[in-house]
Amino acid sequence: MSRFGVRRVTWRALRARRRELAALGGWSLVESLPALLAGYLVARAVDEGFLAGRLVNGLAWLGVLGVAVLVGAAATGRTYRSLGAVVEPFRDEVAAQVVRGALRDATRADGRPDSAAVTRLTHQMEIVRDTFAGLLMVTRGFLFSAGAALLGLLALAPVVAALAAAPLLAGLVVFLAALPAMVTHQRAYVRAGEQLGQSAVTALAGHRDVLACGAQARVTADVERWVSAQAAAERRLARMAAIRSLSLGIGGWLPLLVLMVAAPWLVERGLTAGAVLGALIYVSTGLQPALHTLVQGLGGGGLRYAVTLENILRTYPESDHQRPSAPAVRPPTGPAGRSPAVEVRGLTFSYGPRARPVLQNFSLTLADRDHLAVVGPSGAGKSTLAALMAGLVPPQAGTVHLAGATVAEVDPAVLARMRVLVPQEAYVFTGTLADNLRYLRPDADEQTLEVALDALGARPLATRLGGLGAPVAPALLSAGERQLIAAVRAWLAPAPLVLLDEATCHLDPALEATVEAAFAQRSGSLVVIAHRISSALRADRVLVLDGGEPVVGTHEQLLARSATYRALVGCWDDDSVVSSRAASARPG
Ligand code: ATP
Questions:
Q1: What DSSP string runs through 486-554?
Q2: Which pLDDT does position 126 carry in this prediction?
Q3: Residue of higher predicted confidence among 3 and 265
Q4: Which GO terms describe its molecular function (predicted)?
Q5: Residue 5 has pLDDT above 90, yes or no
Q6: With bands split at pLDDT 50, 70 and 90, how would you rate the model's confidence at 3?
Q7: Which residue has the higher pLDDT, 229 or 312?
Q8: Mutate to test the pocket of ligand 1, among 382, 527, 544 (most ligand atoms within 8 A of CB)
Q9: Is any ligand 1 atom within 6 A of the Cβ of residue 378?
Q10: Element spanning 330, H or E
């Protein structure tokens, strides 16, 4: 049961909801009132009422039992409400884990989103929710009902309680001893079912090839192997059902037999007829159904819970922030050490086997605090380069290293803390401004957010929105305002490499200059895919991509060396800036 942390995850969910569990316990206590009083009140009704010839007395005692039953029924309704408060957040946690895992797989450099797996896991998540609720209900029901019945038996006569408790305990021990084997067989049954489904799908999808190759016998044998495996697992599970019946027989029926056999002896010892009847009622309406529900619940839904949750945890293990252990590769926290901040080696990439390569054997090195602008005509490959550097698409050849780590090998969760890519279409979500800004750095305090707002010239926007706590409606923001929020968020991110892919194109030139200056001041490296020539002028170096051989240099060097760059500069309209920089570049 503990494989893949089922026990740990379950205990954690229960510990996190102690208050709700206490409420559930409180209502369960009230619910078990009839189980506690039934035998005792029947004993009084018989001894002091019916057997004593006082009919009204007998009926009055039964009337009290009726009231207890009504109170118990009212409490049952409340237990379901408390149950929801425990189960629903647990379901949300499991759902979040599945979504996180699916996103991680979808954004992995070589990953493909597996929507079928997500659908399957969503179904399994519902099973976990339902069976978790069932598990809680049967365990709690057993503890309270059996506990109440035993207390009632004790009140009648301790010796009767002992006679009933001994076989009950023995039945429980038999069941609990067989439980691990039941989990193992249930697991084997589910796995065999999955494998059978997989091999059947493969066989059906490829039936033409199978026929063409004459491989029917081999494929049939493969499918049959899993059919046999599932059948064998089911037979073993059925044998386990016999153990369940045995434990029910020992724990549920034996106490009744013992009490009936011992009845004459008990009466000799002074037990009244009413007390004997009461004891039988405690066993038959309290202990026996409680044990029955527990055994059936744990043996059915409980097993499904353990195996299904285990499957989810195996497919989508808990993410780094849930696990106490350290990530496999740590992102650099300060300026990079001896490795260059970014090192692109021999990169070759094309969008398809027959497509023209966007980049071919391309290399580039950026030091910490380097500020590179990338320019080039539409379709030259600027965004593709940014995606390759961010590890979002895998190259056909070559590598990208960030602080010495190969992006293709870094865990996506760790990679997310090593670089941030801000695209042209800024993503702002419904929530407060602070929520949006903290998205990549959840621990940033308010003062840090305020500093970021000022550094990037976003103070007027924040004021207009109503401050950090104000709600943000993305649809009511302009494209530039969304870009500004995304820029502040990226600036706050702990990632040492920032890639701005025309991320400021909707800002006015002055604000764009403020934003870029703020990023340039920030520690780490900055790559700006330039929308205006002014962005190139602010950079230390400029990379020109035009489908031919990429050229890197300063603005002045490129004016001399790159016809594409000269043409771009000529087309951009920041004439004053260009001429001033060009003038300063002229000798003399
Ligand atoms: P722009 O300045 O217009 O954004 P860019 O320089 O960023 O262009 P990229 O978007 O990197 O250029 O595109 C480079 C080349 O790859 C283009 O020829 C483009 O048509 C092609 N391309 C881009 N994305 C894909 C894709 N998903 N599938 C196939 N080809 C693509």
A1: HHHHHHHS--SEEEEESTTTTS-HHHHHHHHHHHHHSSSEEEEE-SSHHHHHHSSEEEE-SSSS-EEE-
A2: 85
A3: 265
A4: ABC-type transporter activity; ATP binding; ATP hydrolysis activity; ATPase-coupled lipid transmembrane transporter activity
A5: no
A6: low
A7: 229
A8: 382
A9: yes
A10: none
Question: pLDDT-based confidence at 334, cuts 50/70/90?
Answer: very low
Q: If pLDDT is split at 50, 70 and 90, which confidence band does 329 have?
A: very low
Residue 180 has, within 13 A of its CA and on its CB side, a CA count of 5
pLDDT at 409: 87
Q: b/e per residue, 28-45, with b = 16+ CB within 10 A? A: bebbbbbbbbbbbbbbbb
Asked if residues 125 and 98 have their Cβ atoms less than 8 Å apart, the reply is: yes
Q: Which domains does the chain have, with CATH numbers?
A: 3-322 (1.20.1560.10), 342-583 (3.40.50.300)
348-357: long-range contacts, CB 8 A cutoff, minimum separation 24 = 348/395, 348/396, 348/397, 348/398, 349/384, 349/388, 349/393, 349/395, 349/396, 350/396
Q: Whose CA is nearest to atom 31 of ligand 1?
A: 351
Is this model's pTM higher than 0.70 or not? no
Cα(89) to centroid(ligand 1), Å: 43
Q: At what angle do helices 33-44 and 55-107 cross, to 10 degrees?
A: 160
Tokens linked to 310: 């285990």
| pLDDT number for residue 289 | 93
Starting from the edge strand earliest in sequence, which strands make up the sheet with 397-402, in order? 359-366, 342-349, 397-402, 405-406
pLDDT in tens, 36-54: 999 999 999 999 999 999 9
Percentage of residues of the chain with pLDDT beyond 90 = 56
108 phi/psi in degrees, rounded to 5:
-60, 145
Residues 573, 577, 579, 585, CA torsion sign: negative
User: CA torsion sign, 484 to 490 to 496 to 500?
Assistant: negative
Best CA proximity match to 72, nearest among 40, 111, 29: 29
- Rounded Cα distance between 208 and 214, Å, is 10
When pLDDT is cut at 50, 70 and 90, the band that residue 257 belongs to is very high
Q: Compute the distance from residue 378 Cα to the ligand 1 centre, in Å.
A: 8
Contact 209, 218 (CB under 8 A): no
Question: Distance between CA 224 and CA 502 in Å, rounded?
Answer: 57
Whole-angstrom distance, CA of residue 2 vs CA of residue 148 = 31
C-alpha to C-alpha distances, 391 to 281, 303, 371, 395, 496, nearest whole angstrom: 70, 41, 19, 9, 14
User: Range with the lowest mean pLDDT among 79-88, 139-148, 224-233, 311-320?
Assistant: 311-320
Q: Evaluate: CB of 354 within 6 angstroms of ligand 1.
A: no
| C-alpha to C-alpha distance for 516 and 539, rounded to whole angstroms | 9
The protein residue with its alpha carbon nearest to ligand 1, atom 11, reads 381
CA distances from 452 to 121, 358, 473 (A): 40, 36, 21
Neighbours of 60 (CB within 10 A): 15
Q: Identify the pLDDT of residue 116.
A: 60
Which has the closest alpha carbon to 108: 315, 411, 384, 370?
411
Q: How far apart are CA 264 and CA 267, in angstroms?
A: 5
413-457 pLDDT, tens per residue? Answer: 888 889 999 999 998 988 899 999 999 999 999 999 999 999 999
Share of the chain above pLDDT 70, in %: 89
Q: How far is the CA of 389 from the centre of ligand 1 (A)?
A: 15
Report whether residue 351 contacts ligand 1, using a CB cutoff of 6 Å.
yes
Cβ 564 under 6 angstroms from ligand 1:
no
